Amino acid sequence: MALPAAQVAAGTVAIQIKLGTDQTLSDGSNFSTSAQAAAAAWNAVLGDLQITSSIAAPDPAALPGKAATQGNGINELVFDTKEFDQTFDDNTLAVTTVWSVGDQRTQADIVFNKAYTWDSYRGHCATPSTCNAWPSTKWVTCSAWTTPMKPASPSRRPSRS
Fold first, then answer.
1. Residue 69, domain member (yes or no)
2. Which pLDDT tens digit goes with each residue over 59-102?
C-alpha cells in the first residue's frame, strides 16, 4: 500500500536494524536482511522519501524492555519481550513508537514481540501451516513503517501504534 504523497515529507529516514543476523530464515535471509528487504520494498513506492538502513548487532546485555533506547534520536528495529516498560498483550506482534518535539518528528522505533516465532518468506509459502503460524518480519516491518512516515504530531510523549 502506498501512502499518499501529501503525507510523506521528502528526504531520508535512517533506520538502525538490530534484529540479528545469526539465524537463516525460510527465504534465505536473516532477520536484519529481511527488514532491509522491507525498506527496499517501501523505497520503490515512497518517491521523494527514502529509507536508509544499517545493521547493528543487538545488545545481548539489554534488560527486558531496553533493546531500543527511548529518546536517543535513532530509529531502531529490535526484538524484545516488552515495549520499553510495557508488557505486550497476547495479540501484539510489534509496536511502533514515535517521539516528537512540537511538530518535529525525532524518533520512531519498531519493537517486535519476542514471544512469537518469526520467519521471512516471499511469494508462495512452501508449508501453509507454517505461514499461518509464524509472522513474517518483512510483512510486519512494512506495515509498521507506515506510522513513522505519517506527519508528526505535537507531543513529547511516545505514541503507540
1. yes
2. 888 888 888 888 888 999 999 999 888 899 888 888 888 888 87
CA distances from 111 to 46, 53, 85, 114, 121 (A): 22, 16, 12, 9, 20
- Residue 3: inside a domain: no
Q: What is the CATH number of the domain that holds 36?
A: 3.40.390
Fill in the amino acid letter for 118: W
- 3-class DSSP state for residue 130? helix
For the chain, the domain total comes to: 1
Which residues contact residue 73 at a Cβ distance below 8 angstroms, ignoring those fewer than 6 apart?
106, 107
Beta strands in 33-122 (DSSP E): 49-55, 75-80, 82-83, 86-87, 94-101, 104-113
Residue span of the structural domain in which 57 resides: 9-150
Give domain status of residue 44, yes or no: yes
Instruction: Note whether 77 and 18 are within 8 A (CB).
Output: yes
Tens digits of residue pLDDT in 31-64? 999 889 888 888 888 888 888 999 999 988 888 8
Q: Angle 31-46/137-144 helices, nearest 10 degrees? A: 40
Confirm if 138 and 85 have CB atoms less than 8 A apart: no
